[in-house]
Amino acid sequence: MRLLVVSTPVGPLGQGRGGGVEHTGAMIVAGLLGRGHAVTVLAAEGSQLPPACAGARLWCEPGAVQASWQHGPREAPVQIPASSLLSRLWQRALEHQDGFDLILNLSYDWLPFWLSRFTTTPLVHLVSMGSVALAMDEVIEAVAQWRPGRLAFHTASQAADFRLPTPPRLVGNGFDLARYRPPSPDAVQPALGWAGRIAPEKGLEDAARVAAGLGLPLRVWGLREDEAYATAVERLVPAGTIEWRGFLATDRFQAELGLCRVFLNTPKWNEAFGNVVVEAMACGVPIAAYARGGPGELVHEGCNGALAQADDLAALAAAVQRAAGLDRAACRRWAELHHAPEVFTQRIEAWLQAALAEG
Ligand code: UDP
Predict the structure, then answer these.
(1) Are residues 344 and 264 in the same domain?
(2) Ligand 1 centroid to 296 CA: how many Å?
């Protein structure tokens, strides 16, 4: 297949603003290249593709970035700024669509979903979030009613947010596990870990409170997307509880992540997947997570972590203690069994081929 992969309009690839979509996009591109497909990536100016995607052609467009849908009210209207990156990306995609067999949209934005019916080259969408806004629900559900095969989701919990006429196509996510190396057990330190965009929907405050209650430092990796929120969380807990580690490239991220005793995941929203949960498992770190969204599906009590009822801090603290006693090698094995890149590529390829056959 000749594929055009259109990236997120919230920022350039490689800087973390796109959250898990950046990782997912790179895994898809590398996987499809490996299967012999020709891949072009269309992304914001300043984007960088990881070395595994070197075989892809990269087209970049300038323009004003989109605000993330999850940070507005549910009733928010569709907004496109002047000199918009989103409209530049889709103008270029439409101008060149005849050169491709299929267009794969990775952005959670209104315009590409709305365009679905009007492209001459089939346009498919990997939906990266659950329901966060009415206008997005409506346009996603309209595609589902028209051609359900044009949509794929990461997890059942995420897909359940939408009214779909047929069971959803679920693709999970894949990880280049060779890049994540569990350290030797005696290198593990008395510290907890947390990673993700520093933004309210990620619930860092709950992890910080539990770490403070247990008297353990909480190492935090990720982009400070919402500075005021990050400062407010820091004020909630004794000084020194949070150790800010910044947004790191995968190689350094995994090296630091692996040293944590337990990894916490505390989403306040219906997290679509939760890449960082699997990344921590891949480093041999057991998880303590809320039973909500993707992490609620990824974490299996007693195997790779422990689950707590969502928003219950005492239950989360107990989950940390249960998780700390788990076999770290079993966490790594879980990631190998369920989240290997080949499995993900097969699912993506099968979906794209089915959509292509359907037209
Ligand atoms: N991440 C990273 N470096 C860091 C912290 C996080 O590269 O220092 C990446 C991580 O690999 C993951 C993404 O940020 O792919 C966060 O994705 P997730 O699915 O956990 O949440 P999202 O941001 O999509 O809501």
Answers:
(1) no
(2) 17
pLDDT in tens, 268-321: 999 999 999 999 999 999 999 999 999 999 999 999 999 999 999 999 999 999
Residue with the smallest CA separation from ligand 1 atom 5 is 222
Q: Which atom of ligand 1 is nearest to the CA of 21?
A: 24
List all residues whose CB is within 6 A of at least one atom of ligand 1.
16, 19-20, 23, 195-197, 221-222, 247-248, 250, 253, 273-276, 279
108 and 10 part of one domain: yes
Residue 108 to residue 46: CA distance in whole angstroms: 20
Tell me how many domains the chain contains.
2
Amino acid (1-letter code) at residue 24:
T
Residues 269 and 306 in one domain: yes
Site to probe by mutation for ligand 1, drawn from 126, 276, 281 as the one with most ligand atoms within 8 Å of Cβ, is 276
Amino acid at 232: A
Which residue, by CA, sits nearest to atom 10 of ligand 1? 276
- The DSSP string of 106-124 is ----HHHHHHGGG-SS-EE
User: Cα(109)–Cα(21) distance, rounded to whole angstroms?
Assistant: 13
- Closest ligand 1 atom to Cα of 276: 20
Give the least confident one: 9-18, 323-332, 347-356. 9-18
| CATH code of residue 47 | 3.40.50.2000
pLDDT class for 359, splitting at 50, 70, 90? confident
User: Ligand 1 atom 13: the closest Cα is on which residue?
Assistant: 20
pLDDT at 16: 86
Residues of the domain holding 32 = 2-174+340-358
Residue located nearest, by CA, to atom 11 of ligand 1: 276
Residue with CA nearest ligand 1 atom 15: 20
What integer pLDDT is reported at residue 17 of this predicted model? Answer: 87
Q: What is the pTM of this model?
A: 0.95
Q: Are residues 204 and 96 in the same domain?
A: no
Per-position DSSP letters for 192-212, written without gaps between them: EEEES--SGGG-HHHHHHHHH
29 and 151 in a single domain? The answer is yes
Same domain, 149 and 160: yes
Same domain membership, residue 154 and residue 211: no
In this structure, are residues 134 and 75 in contact, taking their beta carbons and an 8 Å threshold? Answer: yes
